Amino acid sequence: MAVEEISIAAFVSMHNSSLRMIDVRETDEYESGHIPGAVNIPLSEFAARVSEVGADKVVYMICRSGARSMQACEICIDSDINGVKNVAGGTMGWIASGRDIVTGELPG
Questions:
Q1: Is-catalytic flag, 63?
Q2: Domain range list for the chain
Q3: Residue tagged active-site, from 21, 63, 76, 87
Q4: For the segment 53-71, what is each residue's pLDDT rounded down to a tens digit?
């Protein structure tokens, strides 16, 4: 099964607090600035923590530019979690679109 991608423009237009977003960058990268509402599960821990993704609704995977989040999507699909979408352009695309980021630890 191929990974579905969403453009940063489409993601920006639909972004809200009810979306399930996972930022797969390492914790220090995440804390230095992330998309509001994104939860951090570093790619280095992702395979061991894939059960945290959940399969009850669509999950948007985010990283710096879209490469690591694509890998996370592939791990999900290999684990029979199919409701994942890769945010092409990632956090850098979000910033380039003029949107604000949040600094600090994960939201909970």
A1: yes
A2: 4-96
A3: 63
A4: 987 889 999 999 999 999 9
pLDDT, tens only, 41-52: 999 999 999 999
**What is the DSSP code string of 13-78?**
HH--TTSEEEE-S-HHHHHH-B-TTPEE--HHHHHHHGGGS-SSS-EEEE-SSSHHHHHHHHHHHH
Taking Cα atoms as reference points, which of 78, 92, 76 lies closest to residue 11? Answer: 92
Cα–Cα distance list, 100 to 52, 69, 80, 92, 94 (Å): 26, 20, 33, 11, 8
Q: Looking at the structure, give the CATH architecture of the domain made up of residues 4-96.
A: 3-Layer(aba) Sandwich (3.40)
Are 34 and 24 contacting, i.e. CB atoms less than 8 angstroms apart?
Answer: no
